[in-house]
Amino acid sequence: MTELATMDFHPRPQAGDAKPWAFPAPKRGALDNGLTVLRCHRPGQQVVAVEVLLDAPLDAEPAGLDGVATIMARAFSEGTDKHSAEDFAAELERAGATLDAHADHPGVRLSLEVPASRLAKGLGLIADALRAPAFADSEVERLVNNRLDEIPHELANPSRRAAKELSKELFPADSRMSRPRQGTEETVAAIDSAAVRAFYEKHVRPATATAVVVGDLTGIDLDALLADTLGAWTGSAAEPRPVPPVTADDTGRVVIVDRPGAVQTQLLIGRIGPDRHDRVWPAQVLGTYCLGGTLTSRLDRVLREEKGYTYGVRAFGQVLRSAPDGTGAAMLAISGSVDTPNTGPALEDLWTVLRTLAAEGLTDAERDVAVQNLVGVAPLKYETAAAVASTLADQVEQHLPDDYQATLYRQLAATGTVEATAAAVSAFPVDRLVTVLVGDAAQIKAPVEALGIGEVTVVSAE
Q1: For residues 280 and 274, is the Cβ–Cβ distance under 8 A?
Q2: HEC string of 145-203?
Q3: Is the separation of the CB atoms in 230 and 130 below 8 Å?
C-alpha cells in the first residue's frame, strides 16, 4: 500500500488588537510675512503634500470677467521671474513633483506633491509661482483659448449642462453662484494678461493665505525651508472683504433642457441647505448617505435594482461656501440618468422614495451600514498625505476648527436613526426641490407634467 504524504501547516495568522484611529491633528503657526501654516507629520508618507489657499473667491472677480480666477490659477505654473513656462515644467519634473491649481467659490487653491527628499525644491517652485508669476501675454492667451475650447464640450456633457442650469435656476441672476464657475465664452474671451495680473495684485498676498504641509517630515527642518521659500513671498495686508450671504429660490419646479433625440435623460434635483457650521450637518451627512450615498442605498435599491431604470442614482451634500455666521450654504442634490421612456416612471418612484422616507423613516440597519461605510473605512480614505492635506485645507477654507474632521467622525458614530431620518427629510422636502432634466422634451414633458411635482418649463440646450 502506498503511504500518503503528509503536510505540515503553518499556524494561521491571528488578527492583532485594533488600534484606535482619529483624523490627524495639525500644528498651526505663521511665518513672518503673515502666511498661516498648518503642518502634519505622517511617518512613512514619503510623498509630501502641500496645499496653498488664496483668498481670491469667485465673487471677487470683476464684472464681465467671470473665469479670471481660473485663468490665474492655471497661469501660476506657466513661468515665473526665474523660469519660462517650459523651464518651470522641466524643474517640476526633475523634482518628481506635480503642481495643480483650481478656482472655486471660496478661493483659489494650489496643490503640490513632491518626494520628501525634494521638498526644498518643490517649495521653492511653488513659492516662485506665488511670489512672481510671469503671466506672459502669450501664455495667458493660450490658456484663454484652451478654456474657450473646453466650454462647448462641457455644454455637450449632460451632467455639466444640468449643473449649469440648476445654478442658474436656484440663485439670483446677480449672484456669482448663478453663473458657471469657470466663466462663459463671452467673459473668458475678454480676459487678458493685464486682467489676470490686476486680479492677482488685488487678492493674492501671504497675509490672507494658508499653507498646509503633510507628510513624513523626519529629519526635515521645515521652519527653515518655509522661511527660505514661502517666507520670501511678500505683500501688503488686506482689508476685510464683505461676503454676500447665499440666497436661493427652491420653489418646487421642473426645467427641461431640450436635447431632441436623446436616448437618456440626465436628472439633477437640488436645493440649498445648511453648511458644516450647522449642528444638523452630521445627521444630514448620515441621512443623505442612507438615501443615496452608495450602491446599497435606498434610491439605488429601488431605481436600479428593483426597476432597472438606471446604472445608479446618488444623493449628496456639497459645501458651496461655509461661514460661522450662518451666511454659508451647501448644495443638496440627487443626480443620475435614466432611459428616456422611463423618465416619468423613474421620477415618480424617486418621489415615492422621498415620501416613504418622510412617512416611515430609515431603518436601524440602513443607519448602521452608513456609519460603517463613513466611519469604519476612514483610516483607508486618509492613507495618503494628499488626502489628509486636502481635508485640512477644506477645514481652513470653510473656517472650521482644526479638530473638525475628528469630531465629525465621533458625531457620525453617535447619530441615531431618528436624527438621520429627520435630517434627510428636511434636506429633501418633496415640495421644495428644483428638478433639471436634460433630455428629449417631446418625449418626457407630458409624463413629467402628470406627476405634479412643479411647473414644467422647457429651455434650449444652447
Answers
A1: yes
A2: HHHHHHHHHHHHCHHHHHHHHHHHHHCCCCCHHHCCCCCCHHHHHCCCHHHHHHHHHHH
A3: yes
Are 329 and 274 within 8 A, CB to CB?
A: yes
Is the torsion defined by CA of 104, 105, 108, 111 positive or negative? negative
Crossing angle for the helix pair 85-94 and 119-131, to the nearest 10 degrees: 160
The C-alpha cell 407630458 sits at 446
Which of 229, 335, 235, 353 has the alpha carbon at shortest distance from 290? 353
Show the DSSP H helices in 33-101 as ranges. Answer: 68-75, 85-94
Residue 76's φ and ψ, nearest 5 degrees, are -60, -30
H or E segment and range at residue 459: strand 455-460
Strands 313-321 and 264-273: unpaired
Residues 302-341 as b or e (16 or more Cβ within 10 Å = b): bbbeeeebbeebbbbbebbbbbeeeebbbbbbbbbbbebe
Give me the tens of pLDDT residue by residue for the chain, a chain 462 residues long. Answer: 556 667 777 788 887 777 788 899 999 999 999 999 999 999 999 999 999 999 999 999 999 999 999 999 999 999 999 999 999 999 999 999 999 999 999 999 999 999 999 999 999 999 999 999 999 999 999 999 999 999 999 999 999 999 999 999 999 999 999 999 999 999 999 999 999 999 999 999 999 999 999 999 999 999 999 999 999 999 888 777 777 889 999 999 999 999 999 999 999 999 999 999 999 999 999 999 999 999 889 999 999 999 999 999 999 999 999 888 888 899 999 999 999 999 999 999 999 999 999 999 999 999 999 999 999 999 999 999 999 999 999 999 999 999 999 999 999 999 999 999 999 999 999 999 999 999 999 999 999 999 999 999 999 987
Count of CB atoms situated within 10 Å of the CB of 398:
19
Cα-based distances in Å from 308 to 245, 346, 452: 41, 9, 23
Q: For 321, phi and psi rounded to 5 degrees?
A: -155, 135
